[in-house]
Amino acid sequence: MSTSKILPYASVVVKLLKGPVEYVEKGAWEKLLQYKVELTGFLQQLGLLLVLDEQDGYAFVKHALSEDDEAYVSWTQRRSFSYEESIMLVLLREMMAEFEISESASRELIKKRREIKEYAELFFKEGASRIKFLKEIDRLIDKVEESGFLHKMENHEMIDEQKFRIRKIIKAKVDSEALENFQQQLMAHAGNAVPAE
């Protein structure tokens, strides 16, 4: 097959179908911006919408049609989160909101695992065992990283010193309305312990 027949933005389409693309992936990001009009048109033919936030530096695709529609085709992975995982997402989103109103010169929000755990402790009431409780918080952090909302910057021999970048895509997945609603629920559920699996 002749390479001239391959779409110049094919690699970006493949990346978008696998997950979000961020500005830190320089080559893919530049190609995405260069071909955003063509990409939008091509993805629409697949029943997908390109969601692009140039300011925050992320892009992802979502379905243009509802599941009830006859022409609906599922291209992207659906993830469902437990109540505790949802709380962790909202807490990370809250950290992002606080970071963005601060006077930080940095574009990225980077936190150590220890700092995320300390922040989470304010919202999760610990159960009988503190060690078990902290392990559960670690599990939630790992789950959120696996889901693509945290990016591990470096490994550290001390697990609590691991650094994570909180990915801005979280702003698209947890919008300000969802954040507000969840904060109200958090206040109501603040007394509940996190159940261990």
UniProtKB/TrEMBL annotation:
Alphabetical list of InterPro entries matching this protein: JetB
Name of this chain's protein: Uncharacterized protein DUF4194
Annotated organism of origin: Chitinophaga ginsengisoli
